[in-house]
Amino acid sequence: MRGGTRRDPSRRTDGANVAAFAEYLHTPLLPWQRYVADVAGEIDPDTGSYYYDTVILSTQRQCGKSTLIDTQSTRNALWGPRRYVYYLAQTGKDASEHFKKYLSSLQDSELQAICRRPYLGAGDLRQPYINGSVFRPMSVTKVAGHGVQGDMITLDEAFSLSADTGDAIIDGFLPTTATRFRATGVQPQLWITSTEGTAESTFFNARLDACRAGEASRRTCWFDFGIPEDADPEDLDTIMAYHPAAGLLWDRGQLADFRAQFGQNTAGWARAFGNRRDTGIADRFIPVDLWDATVCEPMPPGAARNAPTAFGMAVDVDATHTSISVAVRGDDGVTRTQVLKVLDGTGDAVAELRRLARTYEAPVCMDSRGPNAPLHDLLSRQDDVELVPLSSADYMAVGQSYLSGLQNGVTLHAADTRLDESAANCARSWAGDSWHVTRRGSTGLTSPIESVMVAAWAVMHTEDADLQIF
Ligand SMILES: Nc1ncnc2c1ncn2[C@@H]1O[C@H](COP(=O)(O)OP(=O)(O)O)[C@@H](O)[C@H]1O
Ligand SMILES: [Mg+2]
């Protein structure tokens, strides 16, 4: 373990019972799973029930995390009559897909004898047991609005939650636990389990960071598996050495296949199999050498004469800034990009664009979603502004297109410290094989680099005829 709670041998533990249920479910506990069950199952001698009210578990993927939760949940549901156990995942689909696997493992188990027939309704999936207890999956979004009471609640893959959503669930659950404890004699438990996320994982990061800083409550136990800070995630031997399910659930040969699936997504790989948080910094997507090698002189105002030209515009998260850039394709086939303005807020953007248009008469291109939406809307209603259409799929390509342009020597950027900073600090988010600049998860401004990207894209992807040439 990278860090976490040590077993207190002076306390009894319920871990052996969890292990017995694991045998029944044909997934006998792996050593790390047993360790977590032993610590999380420690019994407070004063109450005769769980010592810990909260369990925080951070592991790599393909560890057996969700499987451990199922076993633990089964044990919890069967601790006494009429207990309520919930498995919460990001979406209803995630939750129910996982739950159906659990139901089938239950089907093959001797535990059938103590199960009632499961409900399999689309919106009402659950497993009742003959003691009146129920285990059911739910989506986080559903629960966040209404609150949920119960004896054990798990937030699985909690990295996907924002602080607001996660806190809403916990705020609904925690106040009811004292009453449940009194009624049942069993301390309710909250389990928060996840692989590390990104800077956007504001709910999980805050909790994990508090544990690491020694600031968690004494009633919280935590477990943190993963590669050390200075380890190289590309070294598969390192991954093998620190992954607690390596050699147990899969072998090194399979690990190489897992790696191949991630392709160039090195940060995603480090996160999934090293359990390293993707802070974006490690995934600086424009290598500093390439950036330095592709700088050019600022363009004189006349540069746009007789050359295909486009403006790019981008808004930062929470609309704090708006950047306006220009891209000009020269006779040499090289597209030069330059930041023209970084404005506070969005209010002056249209006026500024009109002013700039007197120097470079050109259409403008920008994303139409997120923080860009209001300004995009406004622009689309201006008669004297030509907007280059940019679909969502196009938007997912502008970053790679710009990066390829730099690599192929056909795109340059005029020296600008705001752009340099933006290029250095921006992270990217992947969706399958494509990526876009991470707005909320980046440190510093994203709009300068985004604006040059869309400007360059507009120049490269618009027919010359559509561009203002004068
Ligand atoms: N103790 C175990 N014994 C056998 N197979 C297991 C065990 N724990 C997990 N598995 C299997 O390993 C795979 C990954 O487990 P899962 O719980 O989905 O991992 P995670 O949630 O950490 O990604 C699943 O196919 C699961 O059935
Ligand atoms: Mg899982």
What features would you highlight for this structure?
binds magnesium ion; Rossmann fold; 470 residues; disordered C terminus; 2 domains; alpha/beta; seven-stranded mixed β-sheet; elongated; Nucleotidyltransferase, domain 5; 18 strands
Describe the protein's architecture and organization.
The chain is of the alpha/beta class. The chain has two domains: about 220 residues, P-loop containing nucleotide triphosphate hydrolases (Rossmann fold, 3-Layer(aba) Sandwich), CATH 3.40.50; about 180 residues, Nucleotidyltransferase, domain 5 (2-Layer Sandwich), CATH 3.30.420.240. It contains 16 helices and 18 strands. It has a nine-stranded mixed sheet with strand order 1-9-2-8-7-3-6-5-4, with helices on both faces. Helix 1 packs across helix 2, helix 1 packs across helix 3 and helix 5 crosses helix 6. The radius of gyration is 27 Å and the shape is elongated.
